[in-house]
Write a structure and sequence with these properties.
It contains 7 helices and 6 strands; from the N terminus they run ββαααβαβαβαβα. By secondary structure, the chain is of the alpha/beta class. Helix 5 links the parallel strand 4 and strand 5. Helix 2 packs across helix 3. The two termini are 23 Å apart.
């Protein structure tokens, strides 16, 4: 049975928690994580880049000089790609970069990424993160206590928490995510994951609800 220690904000062990074998002991290939990360990054691209071809550039309707007997090269338009301010040859055009993945592959990638993080001892579980009002100093002190202040950290919460979000946003390399929004890219992009105990329980509940 997989277990992980539960700590408080002062890095004191307050208990242990059982982990789901299907989530934190995935047998999937590591390549599925790479595929999911590539897909996530590709789907963030807007694909709105564009350049003008010679047919889109204004001007150039008249032949700049006659074809022969000028001593100069033959040209039909000053908007040819050969000319300054002319059209662009083979320039980028608007396109869709989306890479679609099956839901089961996305889940497999997330579980494999979490398995790898757990194996590398890069997951911390806190009993809770209770902050009455936004205080960046308090969150920095929590990271110092846990020994991960100089690393990139993702706080995984069961639900949206504005106080925690405002406390974390000014810390370089730190971010938050709801457990329902967690994906393989989030897990792979940060050095450490800090779950709350409720967030881990919610992760198991989401898996069971999806399987039902």
């Amino acid at each position: 049975m997989l277990e992980i220690e539960i700590k408080d904000k002062n890095n004191n062990i307050t208990g242990k928690m059982s982990l789901s074998e299907s989530i934190f002991n995935s047998k999937a290939s590591e390549s599925v994580v790479h595929t999911a990360v590539v897909s996530y990054l590709a789907n963030q691209r807007q694909g709105t880049h564009a350049t003008k071809t010679r047919g889109m550039v204004s001007g150039g309707g008249k032949k700049p000089w006659k074809q022969k007997h000028t001593g100069r090269a033959r040209h039909g338009s000053i908007r040819s790609p050969l000319w300054r301010k002319g059209g662009i040859t083979f320039g980028p055009r608007p396109r869709d970069y989306e890479i679609k993945l099956p839901k089961n592959m996305k889940k497999a990638a997330l579980y494999k990424a979490l398995t790898m993080k757990l194996s590398d001892k890069e997951i911390v579980v806190l009993d809770s993160i209770s902050i009455d009002k936004p205080r960046t100093k308090e969150m920095i002190q929590v990271l110092r206590n846990l020994g991960i202040f100089n690393k990139t950290v993702l706080f995984v919460l069961p639900e949206k928490n504005d106080a925690v979000a405002l406390s974390v946003r000014n810390i370089p390399g730190a971010d938050i995510a709801r457990v329902s929004d967690l994906n393989a890219y989030h897990v792979a992009a940060f050095d450490n994951l800090v779950f709350t105990a409720d967030a881990l329980s919610r992760l198991v509940s989401i898996k069971e609800e999806a399987a039902a």
